[in-house]
Design a protein that fits this description.
The chain is α/β, with parallel strands linked by helices and 237 residues long. It contains nine helices and eight strands. It has helices spanning 8-28, 43-52, 63-70, 91-94, 107-119, 146-153, 173-191, 211-216, 226-229; strands spanning 33-37, 57-60, 79-82, 100-104, 124-130, 159-166, 202-204, 221-224. The protein has an eight-stranded parallel β-sheet with strand order 7-6-5-4-3-2-1-8. Helix 5 (107-119) links the parallel strand 4 (100-104) and strand 5 (124-130). The longest helix has 21 residues, at 8-28. The protein starts with 7 loop residues before the first helix and ends in an 8-residue tail after the last helix. It binds pyridoxal-5'-phosphate (PLP). Pyridoxal-5'-phosphate binds at residues 37, 39, 61, 83-84, 167, 207-209, 223-227, 237.
Length: 237
């Protein structure tokens, strides 16, 4: 699964990376959640980060991969989120294992999450993935359709809509920050209203190359992989 192994030098590197990233986050936010994007990493590396570096949130991208490491993970203080594209027919494998799904982008997927969570008597926290750059190749709801989409989700009793997740197009730092600013406005227009408590809602944005910009624009959850764990040999989206 991973080319990385838990050598002493890798442990040292991990510790340095975590310190650096945490310091940068702390300089910009006092409440943002650091979520380790742990695709391709083995359970022993994740467990090291959990046990020794106090990582408390991870995000996995692929159902099969999550299942293969799930039993081994040290789950006592761990919040497991799902951040990748989710196929309807695989919801049943993870509904009992994850606490939040960041990538809800269709009503048919919502329906299946609702159906599986009903069986578990569980209400799933979800974020709606928004295609903030309007990219054809990307999943996510168009910004203009978001109000209508979130309205439609209110019929599902076993889903709690907690905010939005965005992945901006590949771009310069200042363009990226603009996409994040737009995302924040969209988020605020829907979730920061009378009768809603701000701390119940999450704006999930920012990755290794963009978390500083995202935090400047008020991100609540930064999803960071390579800046913490080192470069991945191959990419999965
Ligand atoms: C891989 C991934 C990340 C983290 O990417 P890095 O560039 O390694 O920080 C964040 N969000 C999603 C949805 C991802 O798939």
């Amino acid at each position: 699964m991973s080319e990385k192994s838990l050598t002493d030098s890798y442990k040292k590197q991990l510790r340095e990376n975590f310190e650096k990233v945490r310091a940068e986050i702390a300089a910009l936010s006092d409440s943002a959640i650091l979520l380790g994007a742990t695709k391709t990493l083995s359970a022993d590396i994740i467990n090291y980060a959990v046990d020794e570096l106090s990582l408390t949130y991870i995000g996995e991208n692929r159902v099969q991969e999550l299942l293969s490491k799930y039993d081994e993970l040290h789950k006592e203080n761990l919040h497991i989120h799902f951040i990748g594209t989710l196929q309807k027919n695989k919801v049943k494998y993870i509904a009992d294992k994850v606490e939040m799904i960041h990538s809800l982008d269709s009503l048919s997927l919502a329906k299946e999450i609702d159906r599986q969570c009903k069986k578990l008597s569980k209400v799933m926290d979800v974020l709606v993935e928004v295609n903030i750059g309007g990219e054809e190749s990307k999943g996510g709801i168009a910004p203009s359709e978001l109000p209508c989409f979130t309205d439609a989700l209110s019929e599902f009793e076993n889903i709690r809509v907690c905010g939005i997740m965005v992945i901006p197009p590949k771009c310069t730092s200042s363009q990226c920050e603009q996409y994040f600013a737009q995302s924040r406005q969209l988020f605020e227009s829907l979730f920061c209203r009378q009768g809603k408590k701000r701390e119940d809602y999450f704006l999930s944005m920012g990755m290794s190359d963009s978390y500083v910009e995202a935090l400047r624009q008020g991100s609540d959850i930064v999803r960071i992989g390579s800046a913490l764990f080192g470069k991945r040999e191959y990419q999965i989206n």
